[in-house]
Amino acid sequence: MKKKKKKKKKKKKKKKKKKKKKKKKKKKKKKKKKKKKKKKKKKKKKKKKKKKKKKKKKKKKMKKKKKKKKKKKKKKKKKKKKKKKKKKKKKKKKKKKKKKKKKKKKKKKKKKKKKKKKKKKKKKKKKKKKKKKKKKKKKKKKKKKPVIYQEAKYPPLEPLL
Asked: GO molecular-function annotation terms (predicted)?
């Protein structure tokens, strides 16, 4: 058997990179933005409709009711207890001191004098008074009573002719 010869791998040389100097950048101040609050929408709950169940009517049987006898209860007498009187202690009242209030002085304002204007006199017109008319009262006419002649039924016709 022949032995296989191992091949040697060639190593690649790495190139060195030159490092560049970085310039420092000035940092800008960022303005803070106000966050808006979002309003939550309320969800409406749907009402479920309940189904009504039909009740079956039961037939009632007529039965005679028995009368029950009532028992009389005996009343017990209560004993009265004597109450002891307690002595009350008197409390001393403290006097309160009143504080005096300081009054503020008001400043007086100076009034300016106004010049008087002369007014022209106006002639007054005389108003005529209206006379009130008096209402005349109507007199009621008296009804004449019919003249009754005793001698004749009709009145005499001589003076009229």
From this structure: DNA binding; structural constituent of chromatin
In sequence order, what are the residues at sequence separation of 6 or more whose Cβ sits closer than 8 angstroms to the Cβ of residue 116?
none
Instruction: Say if residues 149 and 155 touch (Cβ distance below 8 Å).
Output: yes
Query: Residue 43, CB half-sphere, CA atoms under 13 Å: how many?
Result: 3
> To the nearest 10°, the Cα dihedral for 153, 158, 160, 161?
140
- How many CB atoms are closer than 10 A to CB 53? 6
**pLDDT tens digits for 52-97?**
777 777 776 676 777 777 777 777 777 777 777 777 777 777 777 7
Give the distance from CA 97 to its chain's centroid.
44
